[in-house]
Amino acid sequence: MESEVDTFKQNNITLSNVKLEFQANREKLSSISTELGQMTEELDMYKAQMDELGSGMTDAKPLVNIKQAISRLKTEIKQLDLKTGVVEQRLWHSRMQEKGVTHRMEETMIFT
């Protein structure tokens, strides 16, 4: 019977050691799982950034919008150049008429 008691005590000690080892491994697993969760979140963040950068590189819409704006600006500049030319011509014509009128007034003064 003593041998069974000794075996029981030895098994009990072994069980305690296994429980301690199990608890230590459980804590390690918990720590590793937490670390894995943090790394997964960080990886997801980096993936989102890469997707955003990738879509920005392949999305030509901003470039198309810029080209359209430049085209509109060129058209507006041509229209403004034309309007400026018309105004300059009218101003020149007006000045010429004033000079002609002034010149005619001088001619009428000389003859009178």
TrEMBL record:
Record InterPro entries: Intra-flagellar_transport_57
Keywords assigned by UniProt, alphabetized: Cell projection, Cilium, Flagellum
Main location: other
Coiled coil region boundaries: none
Keyword GTP-binding among UniProt keywords: no
Family that this chain belongs to: Belongs to the IFT57 family.
Protein's recorded name: Intra-flagellar transport protein 57 domain-containing protein
Organism: Rozella allomycis (strain CSF55)
